[in-house]
Amino acid sequence: MIRFQANRTSSCAIAHSNNERVTIIIHRQRGRRQTRTVKKILIVDDDKSIRRLIERQLAAEGFDVASCGNADDAIEWFSSNGVPDLLVTDVKMPGLSGPELYEHLKTSYDHFPVLFISGYTGDTSVQTINPLLDKPFSRADLIAAVNDAL
To answer: The whole model's pTM is what?
Structure first.
């Protein structure tokens, strides 16, 4: 599937192919050409509205985004799709917590970056987790945290 996006200063084609990494080619009107590899991000959060909001915000920034509602689905996603460029996971979820999910996945997959998110930042067990983005967060804070984690 190829999707075209355009704005005043550039146009770009984004190609998606069976959950593999893809390349974006941006043609600037001034004739410059830039390329970059699209980063795949997996979001794991039991709150569907938070998950969808993060998906939209990251997709709007050009990331290839997938999401799961719990740790079991994330483990299955990893086995089907491989390692994403970044795992963004809620800390407190039913079943395995975000940190437990990360530790479980590290036993089977090479190192990959993680960004934890939580609305329970007053909880002492959450305060030691790093990197941690506190809920609620702005779009700018999310994008900055994702870029730092990558």
So the answer is: 0.74
